Amino acid sequence: MDGGGGEEWLRKKKAKASTHEPIRLKADTKTPKRFPPKSHPILQLFDPSPHLPSVSTCCRCIDVGYNKILPMAMATCFGTAVVHNKRGLRPNYLCSKRCSKRSRPPAYHWDKGHGTGINSWLIQLEGGGWCNNVSNCLVRKNTHLGSSKRMTFTIGTESKSGIVMDHRSPAMLQQSIHPGSGMPPPYRGLKMVTNLHFRGARVWLAVMEDLLSKGMKNAENAILSGCSAGGLASILHCDSFRALLPMGTKVKCISDAGYFINTRDVSGGHYIQTFFDQLVVTHGSAKNLLPSCTSRMKPGLCFFPQYIAQQIRTPLFIINAAYDSWQIRNILAPGIADPHGHWESCKLDIKNCLPNQIKVMQDFRLQFLVALLRLGKSASRGMFIDSCFAHCQTEMQELWFMQDSPLLNKTKIGKAVGDWFYDRNPFQKIDCAYPCNPTCHNRVYDDPHAPHS
């Protein structure tokens, strides 16, 4: 497929969802607040020469309006391109006549690549959990997860000399494409009573179309990555993202903490399976899930990577903790399965866990590894499965490629992913059982009822 073919495919898909073409509007003229963000580690795959400072730009986005449950094209965008405009980047707005009067148009921030990275692209999908029913979605609607009206719109730059892996400085966009679910649903209309919108698919298509027009159709390298719910979305969207780009483009996907497994909770129930079943119904997501999966099992199961991983044709790298702290807290021992709070202290800090709880978590690890086997042994598959109590390990420099970053087979995450992406060496490593890895940065929570990360 050439670049024009990718655009034609997207144009046809977009036409089915809406007859209105997106219109780029002028950005807000107000100067945004600034803050000192950390540079996004995955960008080190494309960083400029080691002799140049590594500069990252991070933008918290405004409300995208298409979906009040979770902002669709809202984005925190990171990049390594040097930013000369000290007042910061301006948001790109997309507008459709189908937006309601109370909705803002979808928007995103991006950092244009330069030099040898002008045709390298990194799309980062943000995490944030999901809502599985109207009540939960209404709660999210009034938080930063549901509307960026509740978010602080900040922007800033940070210059720092860091370890660089490769020589490119890519175009970068980070966005959240899931309206409280891991897969954008089709437009299902405005719920007049709740004012909840389900238009994620349109926003995803509009943003992709706009990025193609900005030069993504000429991409030589492209990564679709994500953390947590965004990591799951990067798996679900991996092949369709590949289909947008020319055949000659190197396209690969990275899922960080997105390999959620279907297993029983500590009460013997199927909490997470029920949760995903409800999610599919609420968001009408069934028709957007892989037909090869939904033809064999109920749609809710097709949110679990273990049932779809073998069907993903695009190269995929899984970064996950075998004792994923989110999964321990929300799949293995959710509050509904632990009414007396026996797991509360353990879920705050793995060092607080009792011997019998550690044993349950060891069993969870084994189930996770069995589910991971569904990926297959192809060299196009990458794995970095450590034994840490952690969730999302690619969004902080100290976990990516710093001196004290977690090691697996004496290799840091950044080195493993870089070698895999550039076909230097395959990497498929699984850590020994907890507590064997002294390099782990185990997560400690302050609130046992903290929201989804």
TrEMBL record:
<feature type="compositionally biased region" description="Basic and acidic residues">
    <location>
        <begin position="18"/>
        <end position="31"/>
    </location>
</feature>
<dbReference type="GO" id="GO:0052793">
    <property type="term" value="F:pectin acetylesterase activity"/>
</dbReference>
<protein>
    <recommendedName>
        <fullName>Pectin acetylesterase</fullName>
        <ecNumber>3.1.1.-</ecNumber>
    </recommendedName>
</protein>
<comment type="function">
    <text>Hydrolyzes acetyl esters in homogalacturonan regions of pectin. In type I primary cell wall, galacturonic acid residues of pectin can be acetylated at the O-2 and O-3 positions. Decreasing the degree of acetylation of pectin gels in vitro alters their physical properties.</text>
</comment>
<dbReference type="InterPro" id="IPR004963">
    <property type="entry name" value="PAE/NOTUM"/>
</dbReference>
<keyword id="KW-0964">Secreted</keyword>
<dbReference type="GO" id="GO:0009505">
    <property type="term" value="C:plant-type cell wall"/>
</dbReference>
<keyword id="KW-0961">Cell wall biogenesis/degradation</keyword>
<dbReference type="Pfam" id="PF03283">
    <property type="entry name" value="PAE"/>
</dbReference>
<keyword id="KW-0134">Cell wall</keyword>
<comment type="similarity">
    <text>Belongs to the pectinacetylesterase family.</text>
</comment>
<keyword id="KW-0378">Hydrolase</keyword>
<feature type="region of interest" description="Disordered">
    <location>
        <begin position="1"/>
        <end position="37"/>
    </location>
</feature>
<dbReference type="GO" id="GO:0071555">
    <property type="term" value="P:cell wall organization"/>
</dbReference>
